[in-house]
């Protein structure tokens, strides 16, 4: 299991460790700096070989090139880590240039100690563009300006420096320098993956550099996986600094840290216990007849609009549901019948007939939304399904209650009801994309989006009142951006709030899919770094996901487990197929993915 820790939690853990007397802040900082240096040499072996301490002083005498590093140190403990990195590189014979603020009055003590240690062996240049100009053409740049302590958008000289670096780092810049971020690229909020003061960062206009490698400590942070985090971090490496003992206890020294936020799947090379499986577990189908493996009912849309539901149904069947039935309005039935074989078709003339179908208590899961439509009849069908889905406990299906997956149009229909969340509960999984999420939770979505960029003025607006209004809106936008404070409201915060409000399990899609329960437990499923699957952004992929989740629930998993497993298998299928993927392929590659999963 890989737990994602916020800045506040990290601070708390560090405090607990130091309070125990078993480790000092200075030791932790030394471990952090050493972790960064080790990660650099593991990533770029040529830099390790070029280090004099490895090759002996004779190397220099033979005219060997001395590698050069520029280390940018900020005003806090992240800067402290930077001073350690600078000293360790210098000890290995590097030419090291350090840029740091001149004013050190507010510097935390451990960082100040490491600054003094550095001063014994090297100089300090100003932390601005001038400082960078006098230390150009390095083999390595180390960004230790801000870490988890970023509280507001950088301003003035610092903003100028960071945006200059944003144009030259990562794979974007003209020089593509090796830029290593200590903990996080400076300017990136480690809780949210947002760049403070810059909602749409671009390589040449961001307030945070694009790193090639990010080395973080103890556990990854949510911001490494959410929003813009992955594109700014380059590669992510986690270094153990020995805080495990204090990770799982609260400030009072007891119990688990709650609510928990976990990464799915866990990081294979993280500092986690090596015996923990890095793959989620799917309940095996061992014995029993088809009804023991769950009966899923998928509602189709009207004539000409049944494809999405058929995709979902096929996804559920391939996932291993014992039986999948499509419930289609009469006018859509011929089209559905012509397209299916292993799936069963039931024809409904009206919502009452659907209600009758739902009296069959062997139907354990109902999936609706894909292609459902937004008309009054669709609303009646949704109402019928909600009315026939008793919450767990009072339920009928194996005592578990009936479970629902509400996707696509069903979510928009919910948002149009007077009480959108009436009748929902933990037996329901809502699977919105960001548009559907905004319809259901407009205030939460607006808070997540942050300040809204005003519309660009067209030439006809360049006069009188329209111009004044446009300028006022632009000023207000700039002010709102500079007033942003860290840690920023994250996608995890938003999905947690949505789950709490609706009472349901909420899965908000994207490359950074987040699942949350009303009690605050949450998971980030990130298709990023070495698990990226950009081919999933294809029409109909979401319909298949709804089917996958339904299928996993039919196999007896709890709704939140099904959401997590469904999202994970969805990405595995996309990765297994690769480029050229279309939604129809997802259920077809699932058997090989499941086979690999079930192998010991
Ligand atoms: N918490 C832990 O367990 C450990 C933390 N360590 C390091 O410490 C870092 C956190 O250190 P800090 O909490 O001191 O925070 P940072 O070093 O990230 O930055 C905080 C400092 O910058 C200032 N600041 C924030 N935003 C600013 C802005 N926009 N413009 C100008 N100044 C700004 C703050 O007032 C504060 O002085 C971590 O990222 C990590 O690198 C490591 O040394 C090892 C252990
Ligand atoms: N860049 C991406 N990387 C990984 N997965 C993605 C990416 N973009 C979209 N997805 C996934 O693809 C699916 C798209 O679903 P959705 O937006 O509902 O589209 P549709 O309605 O066309 O099926 C979601 O599961 C989402 O998480
Ligand atoms: K940093």
TrEMBL record:
The keyword Nucleotide-binding applies. It catalyses: (6S)-NADPHX + ADP = AMP + phosphate + NADPH + H(+); (6S)-NADHX + ADP = AMP + phosphate + NADH + H(+); (6R)-NADPHX = (6S)-NADPHX; (6R)-NADHX = (6S)-NADHX. Pfam families: Carb_kinase, YjeF_N. Residues 273-597 form the YjeF C-terminal domain. AMP binds at residues 509-513, 542. Its cofactor is K(+); Mg(2+). GO terms for biological process: metabolite repair; nicotinamide nucleotide metabolic process. One of its GO terms (molecular function) is ADP-dependent NAD(P)H-hydrate dehydratase activity. (6S)-NADPHX binds at residues 77-81, 147-153, 183, 308, 371, 433, 543. InterPro entries: Carbohydrate_kinase_pred_CS, CARKD, Ribokinase-like, YjeF_N_dom, YjeF_N_dom_sf. Its EC number is 4.2.1.136, 5.1.99.6. Keywords: ATP-binding, Isomerase, Kinase, Lyase, Metal-binding, NAD, NADP, Nucleotide-binding, Potassium, Transferase. PROSITE patterns: YJEF_C_2, YJEF_C_3, YJEF_N. Residues 10-249 form the YjeF N-terminal domain. K(+) binds at residues 78, 143, 186. Binds 1 potassium ion per subunit. PANTHER family: ATP-DEPENDENT (S)-NAD(P)H-HYDRATE DEHYDRATASE, ATP-DEPENDENT (S)-NAD(P)H-HYDRATE DEHYDRATASE FAMILY MEMBER. Homotetramer. Belongs to the NnrD/CARKD family. Catalyzes the epimerization of the S- and R-forms of NAD(P)HX, a damaged form of NAD(P)H that is a result of enzymatic or heat-dependent hydration. This is a prerequisite for the S-specific NAD(P)H-hydrate dehydratase to allow the repair of both epimers of NAD(P)HX. This is Multifunctional fusion protein. It comes from Primorskyibacter sedentarius. The gene is nnrD.
